Amino acid sequence: MLVYALVTGSEVYDYQDTVDGVHLPDVDAIVVLAGGRGRIAVAGDLWYRYRELAKLTPVAGAPASSPPKSPVLYISGMGRQSNWSSLDRQIRRGVLQVMAPSDVILERESSNTEENARFLEVNVRDRGWKKVLLVTSSYHMKRALMIFDQVFLALGTPIQIETLSVYQDPYEPDEWRTQLQGLRVTLVEYFKLIFYRNFWRPEPHRI
Description:
By secondary structure, this protein is of the alpha/beta class. 39% of the residues lie in helices and 14% in strands. It has helices at residues 2-8, 39-56, 93-98, 113-127, 141-155, 180-198, and strands at residues 29-33, 72-76, 104-107, 131-137, 160-166. A five-stranded parallel beta sheet has the order 3-2-1-4-5, sandwiched between helices. The longest helix has 19 residues, at 180-198.
């Protein structure tokens, strides 16, 4: 089984992001899954780019004095002890200086990817979001998107999910076999992907 995983483990990287990081689609929220190296920092920079872009393209019909509309930065799985000051270590100072608490949602309850999806579904339903941009590590994106799609489908909540992967690990996806950390991270994620694809089905109940 281990030999087979070494041969086929690259499957975790076998997907195509819908966002290239240059052309940004209109979204209601940037959803970043906490826990992986560099994810929140990248999402913060992405939020800042949306903010700057919004300044150049005001909302049609809005008064000239209205503030620019940019997506909410939704940080999923920050942990129960997290608060606004926790972002000091996660987001670049220049970005944090122009952020307001109303620009950010800290979701503190979830502790795994399925819970990330279920708590997001509550916000999507309550806030009327139609499209979100999911940000997570490159090794995690394929399984995360699969879980999110199935949870939202099971709960009957429509949502369009764009994706942008974070490449912050000290190895390239096509070189994961050459480093101990690449082997560990990729193989663990590969076995999780196999389990969730073949044995897991989301329960059709809401939080």
